[in-house]
Amino acid sequence: MNTRAPRGRFAALGLLLGLVLALLLPMGPASAYSACTNTAYRSTSPNFYYPVTSSGSSQCEAGIWLASTSYSGVKTLQSALNACYATGLSVDGHYGSRTKAAIEMVQRRHGITVDGGYGPQTRNAMRWPKYYQGRGIGCISFQQTVWGTV
């Protein structure tokens, strides 16, 4: 009796089922951080915008899995990438392939893990536009800002 053929079919069926599930299930962050949603927070000193969660935490992530919906947190990120890195992104709030590529460029430039996702490590490494009376006056690091608890 040949038992190899059925095992091979079951293995192929399992592989196919796993592939279908991987493509159909929504993808999210691999860590415990929440998504950078449609909320952006402006600190009082300096006048500075950055992506946050719906509850206001800066400990958030954004990635290609946010591409299907527009989020103001992603718009804030795209605006910062344009202002401080001249990426020429459309500020549409969708974390698509061009936003991912821009984040990868920032990650390479700052010598951090290159995964194309925005999270606390990327937030801390990248430069952010600083505003005074509604006008951009340069770019600063996240650590250069004045924070209570981040």
List its salient traits.
disordered C terminus; alpha+beta; 36% helix; Muramoyl-pentapeptide Carboxypeptidase, domain 1; 150 residues; 6 strands; two-stranded antiparallel sheet; globular; two-stranded parallel ribbon
The mean pLDDT is 75
Q: Proportion of β residues?
A: 15-25%
Helix/strand order, N-terminal first: HEEEEHHHEE
* Main sheet makeup: 2 strands, parallel
What is the overall shape?
A: globular
Number of helices: 4
| Assigned CATH class | Mainly Alpha
The low-confidence parts are 15-30, 146-150
Describe the secondary-structure layout.
Elements: H1 4-24, E1 34-35, E2 39-43, E3 48-52, E4 60-61, H2 72-85, H3 97-109, H4 120-125, E5 127-132, E6 135-141
Parallel strand pairs: 1-4
Antiparallel strand pairs: 2-3, 5-6
What does this 3D model show about the protein?
It is a single chain. This protein is α+β, with helices and mostly antiparallel strands and 150 residues long. The protein is 36% helix and 18% strand. The chain has helices at residues 4-24, 72-85, 97-109, 120-125, and strands at residues 34-35, 39-43, 48-52, 60-61, 127-132, 135-141. A two-stranded parallel sheet has the order 1-4. A two-stranded antiparallel ribbon has the order 2-3. A two-stranded antiparallel ribbon has the order 5-6. It is globular. The protein starts with a helix and ends in a 9-residue tail after the last strand. Mean pLDDT is 75; it is low at 15-30 and 146-150.
